[in-house]
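Sharing a chain and its predicted structure for anyone who wants a worked example. Both blocks are below, sequence first, tokens second.
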Amino acid sequence: MTIAANLGYPRIGPRRELKTALEAHWAGTLPEAGLREVATSLRTASRRLQQGAGIGHIPAGDFALYDHVLETACALGAIPPGHGWAGEGPVSLATLFSLARGGSHEGEGCCGKHATAALEMTKWFDTNYHYLVPEFTAAQRFVPTANPWAEAVREGIAAGCRTRPVLLGPVSFLLLGRATDGTAPLALLPALLPAYASLLHGIAEAGAAWVQLDEPCLATDLPPGAAEAYRSAYRALAEAVPGLPLLLATYFGGLRENLPLAFGLPVAGVHLDLVRDPAQLEPALELLGPQQWLSLGVVDGRNVWRTDLRAALGLLRRAPAQRLMVAPSCSLLHVPHSLRHETALDPALRRRLAFAEEKLGEVATLARALDEGEAAVGAALAESDRIAAGRGTAPPRPVATAEGSGERANPYAIRAAAQQARLRLPPLPTTTIGSFPQTAEVRAARAALARGTLDEAGYEAAMRGLIADAVAWQDAIGIDVPVHGEFERNDMVKYFAERLDGYAFTKHGWVQSYGSRCVAPPVIWRDVARPAPMTVRWSVYAQSLTARPMKGMLTGPVTLLNWSFVRDDLPREAICRQIALAIRDEVLDLEAAGIPIIQIDEPAFREGLPLRAADRPDYLRWATACFRLAAGGVRDETQIHTHMCYSEFADIIEAIAAMDADVVSIETARSRMELLGAFEDFAWPSGIGPGVWDIHSPRVPDAAEMAGLLRLALRRLPPGQVWLNPDCGLKTRGWAEVRPALENLVAAARLVRAEL
């Protein structure tokens, strides 16, 4: 009998219940017991829904209060000092959230407390989910502090449901971490494996029939020693728990040269992502052991389009009928909960969509078709066939051909002189990334506009008042390049997508980005074009309030692509070039209106980078070309900025330089400027703004701390190229944090300028 399986389910709740509970707990209005009660109810609802949908292998332990990698580290005792953990015993919520967000703890410092920075945060492979990076040292001890996976199994059994616990595999856990003392993380594997074996023993005793070990690193180019690490790790685990079937789960790409490695491990089954790489099925079938199960991910776990059930069945029928699991390509963490409440969508679009709940139905339908024949699911197949036949016919016009120059008129050195003559900025100029706090006042005005209790004129007056206050305050503290604050924007992607043709929007299509941070990606389903200016009037108004050079703020084409659910019947490059032309129109309108600095944010530029080095040049070619197409039409004296989050520069630094922006701001505070190591062997050609304030933590660094980070940056970069800015936008922070932190940032700039 074919098993309908799932690899993971969204955690946040259909109405973002987890977000609400977390933020109430952090605000002190919801006690720990209340937060845990919300978590239990979400797990219970998820389990029941999957069971009712016909899923046979329901994941357990995939829920996390903040991040599954962080909670794996906590369960293994991989907790750096300074976060309130004594080195043994259970890990408190206070420690968990200190690792995630930073915090203050008793016992150190002149005042009895010391501030502790949060763990570094980075992207989960090529998705928009963020994970907390575990930290290790050569002396690292791994000691199980709890076994949430065994608890999840017992919770399910008590409710009449035997679940499949999901753990991050030991090799990927180490590869996704970082050693703070230069130790090779894989060297810690012998110390780690006993802790994993202990967890698996506990899971088996709790009554698990299977365990899913996620090893997504197998879909990447493995570093030296990793293949042997996999062999030794799984040999040790198979010997430690011989009666517990292990499913090795891989996703986000094909295994390619790692296929023999994966199928040669002593595991009971292997999961393959056939959405990303259907061609890996044939070689996998040749490697499949006589008793091994094959789990095939044929339902896209990362996009929102319905599955072509007929095509998926064709793939599944090529596999042996015995020992077969049907599943999504990866965890459904990356898609919204349910389409049920999206009643306002265009019917032509809605019938083509499937969110997490609908994807469970597709998995169950495919498993039933294999076991009972197509007649048993005839209606579902017929509907799928109708949708598949209509793909590509929805756009009202042919896909636009992107034309126009992507080249600036002169090289950076000439542009820089023209820009300085116009802007007259001091050394180490200060700015922010663009957004200021979206306070209750801002949200209330937006909600009133949506309800109709505030008209457009009233809303615009409210936003202008906020902009005026923000510009006056920036002038007062001495920010060299102010911004208007983006108060009128609901989201850096959604705001622009709402003003472009070709996008559609959900009401409840929320997806977790990190912790309590959720986004509702728009859906690209038609040709993209800009019918009218989108930002010009706000930037012009802000510039009228100050003599300092105002920075206009745009979201770049690559980010508008990568942070949307993109139609899958056209090349991503073609869609991105359409978006680039739309942004180019806005850039030229801002320049014509007198805005001297224009920032085209590309925080998702790296996010789209293929996992395999061999696949990256083509992506970098068209992504870079699209940015240049958007920015390339301006005059020399107009300064183009861009911002990039989690910018591990070393392997793509040449492509980022080829974007030809005049200034690039990047996230570097959590890594204490380690990311700037890429500049030791590369002569950076233009301006650079390494972040000196980690805005993902509520900590407010003082001027001395920011100045120290700036001095680290100046060891690698000449002062004439360096800007000061936070790591990212300030939308999610409060004014109580923003005001002192930016005052400290300006003070740090003045302090280091005096030292030059």
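Comments welcome. Residues 44 and 156 are 8 Å apart (CA to CA).
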